[in-house]
From TrEMBL:
<feature type="region of interest" description="Disordered">
    <location>
        <begin position="212"/>
        <end position="235"/>
    </location>
</feature>
<dbReference type="InterPro" id="IPR025445">
    <property type="entry name" value="DUF4191"/>
</dbReference>
<dbReference type="Pfam" id="PF13829">
    <property type="entry name" value="DUF4191"/>
</dbReference>
<keyword id="KW-0812">Transmembrane</keyword>
<protein>
    <submittedName>
        <fullName>Membrane protein</fullName>
    </submittedName>
</protein>
<keyword id="KW-0472">Membrane</keyword>
<feature type="transmembrane region" description="Helical">
    <location>
        <begin position="62"/>
        <end position="81"/>
    </location>
</feature>
<keyword id="KW-1133">Transmembrane helix</keyword>
<feature type="transmembrane region" description="Helical">
    <location>
        <begin position="36"/>
        <end position="56"/>
    </location>
</feature>
């Protein structure tokens, strides 16, 4: 009885938290997508109405009505999730450090380290290590990033050997990857390392150190106008 009561109280506490999170996500999405509520409602009505109409045609309105309700709820959730994701990327795009926030949600099997290299113009490189190898994700001015990427690759070459190194420059220009496609691009990369090799690469890179070890940075996108504190290593 005690265990059941504890479980029930835990579920009751979790549900308001989930509902609050959904409400906050909806408010955030509506700021950049004012029609999100109408679109979601429209999707639900269309799916439910279509299934209910089929139910009347075949003589089973109750069964198809229940199925329509469930499918309508699922369709609404999918549409809401996609529009919320699009709104989130839209708000992050163009902000320094936005790529770091994306890398934190790449998925299991990846170890991410934000701001491993940065220059005085706030062009920045983040690092992710996974089965495809090392991925350097750069954001800032493309021309300045080329030299910054080259310097970082040279620095890593002294520590990690026979580990593939990929680089991604975030942006909408030629040869660049839009922020919303960074995660997909990384997940499509061929897996060439074993889990043990990934661990070894991470240990060596961690021993090498990085910019973050000497400079505390807030999580998520860096605020505009922020400056590097004295003592941080610049490139």
């Amino acid at each position: 009885m005690a265990r059941k009561s504890h479980s029930d109280s835990g579920d009751a506490a979790a549900n308001p938290g989930r509902l609050k999170q959904i409400a906050l996500t909806y408010k955030m999405t509506r700021r950049s997508d004012p029609k999100v509520g109408l679109v979601i409602a429209g999707v639900g009505i269309v799916v439910f109405g279509a299934l209910l109409a089929i139910g009347f045609l075949i003589g089973h309105p109750v069964y198809l009505g229940i199925l329509g309700f469930l499918l309508a709820f699922l369709a609404m959730a999918i549409v809401f999730g996609r529009r919320a994701e699009r709104a989130a990327f839209g708000q992050m795009e163009g902000q320094p450090g936005a790529a770091a926030a994306v890398l934190q949600n790449v998925g299991r099997g990846w170890t991410t380290t934000p701001a491993v290299a940065m220059n005085r113009s706030q062009d920045v490189i983040h690092r992710a290590v996974g089965r495809p190898g090392i991925v350097l994700v750069a954001e800032g001015n493309p021309n300045r990033l080329k030299s910054l990427l080259a310097a970082e690759k040279k620095r890593m070459a002294r520590i990690v050997v026979d580990v593939p190194v990929h680089d991604i420059i975030v942006g909408d220009g030629e040869g660049q990857v839009p922020l919303k496609k960074v995660r997909t691009t990384m997940l499509k990369m061929p897996r060439v390392l074993t889990a043990a090799q990934v661990t070894v690469a991470n240990d060596r890179l961690r021993a090498m150190g990085d910019l973050m070890s000497n400079m505390p940075l807030p999580k998520g996108p860096m605020p505009k106008g922020a400056r590097m504190p004295r003592g941080g290593r610049l490139r």
